[in-house]
TrEMBL record:
Known catalytic reactions: Exonucleolytic cleavage in either 5'- to 3'- or 3'- to 5'-direction to yield nucleoside 5'-phosphates
Gene that this sequence comes from: xseB
Keyword Cytoplasm: yes
Protein known as: Exodeoxyribonuclease 7 small subunit
Enzyme Commission code(s) on record: 3.1.11.6
Taxonomic lineage: Bacteria, Pseudomonadati, Pseudomonadota, Gammaproteobacteria, Oceanospirillales
Gene source species: Modicisalibacter zincidurans
């Protein structure tokens, strides 16, 4: 219990409605902290599940941010006259996972 008589909030138990961090680096820091807590094995089962759920939400947020950033990235292509021109970024096609590359 805290000094005001309210139950203390478990710092290891993430809030369900907690807003994602404002930037990508903060999202990664929070993910790393959650992984550290889970790897330490000191959380209760309930706190571990809550941390895992928050980690999934943060991972999805990070992936969304990466996808949005990829859309904004532009490649600079050198023109024959030496100047650079911005062109839309196109990601290379990932290799096929089937192993049947012909």
């Amino acid at each position: 219990m805290s000094e005001n008589g309210m139950p203390d909030k478990d710092p290891a138990a993430p809030a369900d409605r907690e807003a994602p961090p404002e930037d990508f680096a903060a999202t990664l820091e929070r993910l790393e902290a959650l992984v550290g807590q889970l790897e330490a094995g000191e959380l209760t089962l309930e706190a571990s599940l809550a941390a895992f759920e928050q980690g999934v939400r943060l991972t999805r947020d990070a992936q969304r941010r990466l996808d949005a950033a990829e859309l904004q990235v532009q490649a600079l292509v050198e023109q024959p006259d030496g100047r650079f021109e911005a062109t839309p970024f196109t990601a290379p096609n990932p290799p096929s996972e089937s192993g049947n590359d012909r």
